[in-house]
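hi got a favour to ask and not much time before my train. below you get a single protein, a line of residues and a line of whole numbers that encode the local backbone shape. could you go over both lines and see whether the tokens make sense for that sequence. a few lines back from you is plenty, here it is:
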Amino acid sequence: MSACWPEPCSGASDEEFTNQLHGCDIDAANEAVAMLRTPRIAFLAGYGRNGGTLLDRTLGSFQGAVSLGELRFVWRKGLQRNELCSCGLAFRDCQFWREVFDLAYGGFERVDADAMIRLYRAVDRTRYVPFLASALRPAGFEQRATELARRLSPLYAAIAQVSGAEVLVDSSKFAGYGWILSRLEGFETYTIHLVRDPRAASYSWSKSVRKPEVANSEALMPRANPVSAAVQWTYRNLAAETLRRCSTRYRRVRYEDFARAPREQGEELARWLGLEPAVRSAFITDNEVMLEPGHTQSGNPVRFRSGATTIKVDDEWRTKMPRTQRLTVGCLTAPLRSRYGYR
């Protein structure tokens, strides 16, 4: 354990816990932000298996943007487990992430990933979502949220400097994490609330999919039963809507609309994010995009794909999803599903 990332004492009060996390002066790392045009974080919010990784990679292929994947998990999957970066190297062997962590924190060895994960769990939890857009919050929550934002600022500042990008695309999805990112000093946060038909999402959650980032064993992505997927789809999308009340720019996008007109939707989002698609469009044709090799963390296996990629709607669920599951998910999600335009 380094002096920069102290271990919280058992039974410590909220104030004591916050004070322990102020180990080193990391404010200097944020100076990188001031050297650039105000960088933007494009945060993809919503429920999993909604096409977020594909949209993340698409936006990251525009000039001036960089795709990061689900950066919320970098402490566990990157630092602790050393899983594969999308460039194909183990996280700690990736030159991009080594440069980022050297600039942000003085190197991988200076970071106590356990302490960061504990701090996340004290702030970014399902139980705290109702407090995100409210002035009434549990004791100590505001202090810990402020400390988490302070710890994350040098990471995103370093990414902006190392990549040279104006727009950092983060598809972490969790509303609590998006709320924390909206508090980072020196950044503008744009929330893209990506929704997908809950029956399609539920079917995707029921499938067995191998995790290519785990190189030394046969690991599968998490699965969920139809009832759990339906409940989570509703809750996570309602949580994402709370971000429109925070200090973020908010826009809702349906996966199906993006997949049917990827060039039109992608370039419109790029303009909204302050990018100019005419400088270098990532699209070869109206539905084919050139995915650049990158350094994304966590997400769907598509993050390992590069080169010309055709985008089309994945509607396998319409023919392969059992009727009882379709009815179950359809009934449980009916009110919100109808509001999002899914009949």
Observations:
- The CA atoms of residues 199 and 327 lie 9 Å apart.
